[in-house]
Amino acid sequence: MNNRKTYFLSALLLTISVIVLLFTGSPLLTTSLTSDGSVPLGTFITWAGMISLPLTIYWGIKELRKPSSKLNRVLSELLKIIILLGILWVPISYLLAGNLSFTFSEKETFQGGQAAMRWFWRLSYGIGISAVLIVTTFWISLLFKKRKNTTH
């Protein structure tokens, strides 16, 4: 098995595992990594998913790694931005929340407050939704490409 397939299968397995853990509400997510309970394992499990989802798409679709059309170049660049945001998810989220459990309160200040919480959720959902939109756009473009090829 070549490296690309290994990377793809590893990222896919990690993505599926994280999705299952998140949707089942696994107790692993709330397992504390510190004695004071301030750092849940779920933070790092979710972080792995934030990185592995777009990487699964990147390693799974050659045209998004080495694009040959203008649309695919745009999708490829957007995917790379999503991968970068996935990598930076914990540092950005920490800056927003002020803690690694990503809890927010009714504070008047930005960090840890309601405005920061809205940005946290936009970032968190944005990574996943954007990755899915990129792959969906790619698949739709394939349908139009096939239709164009069959009509000529």
From TrEMBL:
Top-rank taxon, per record: Bacteria
Key words of the record: Membrane, Transmembrane, Transmembrane helix
Residues that span the membrane, as ranges: 7-29, 41-61, 81-103, 123-144
Annotated protein name in UniProt: Uncharacterized protein
Species annotation: Roseivirga misakiensis
